[in-house]
Amino acid sequence: MKSKINNDFYNDLNDEWYHSNNHAIALLRAEQKVKNQWVKDQIQSLLPETQSILDIACGGGFLANELANYFSDVHGVDASKTSLETAKKFDQTKKVQYHYADAYNLPFKKEAFDVVCLMDFLEHVERPEDIILEASRVLKPKGLMFYHTFNRNFLTKLIIIKAVEAFVPNTPKNLHVYELFLKPEEVWKFLRNAGLKPTLSTGIKPKIDRAFFKSIMTRRLDERFDFELIPSHKLAYLGVATKC
After folding, report:
1. Residues 157, 130: contact at Cβ < 8 Å?
2. Residue 1 confidence (pLDDT)
3. Whole-prediction pTM
């Protein structure tokens, strides 16, 4: 029997979104720095006139708060009220508009945004294709949709689930469920079915360096722990698609 994904623990993180170094959220925070830069660079390169951005399942605001430094109209939606409160608290620009909302039924009109982001989210829902369809509904023609998720293979089961549970203290039970991981070709099929054309994607993994091994030994994420983009999609991958 497939385990039920645990999305409730986000409600209890509060400032730990930004400060914890002994929780799986610290891994996401470190990884997000690389993803934030990639998303920002791609937006500025592919759609330089971008104004309106929607970050779906924004959590504590890692992406939305960063993008608000560069773009004028940034929105974030999430189903965790406490996470939204944290996102607002750490929004240094005080420009991001945060909304409590269901990603399956977004409170926005059709074709409202230039850019929509689905980062670290598709592997947390039972119906990812429906999420992509709804995200596409609020995306303008020629707009960009960004995504990040985990591949489904032996390597991700070993590293993303087993190794994180073993080496990262306070990792919530069922933080990830293997059966919800998505192969790249599955995501690309969902995107095409929603009227989007996948254009560019890249893999991502932790850097294997001194900070990596120190983090494993101390079971606390070293502040220098970092991620890097790689060609392989075997572990995790992120990409962008254009609405036709």
Report:
1. no
2. 63
3. 0.97
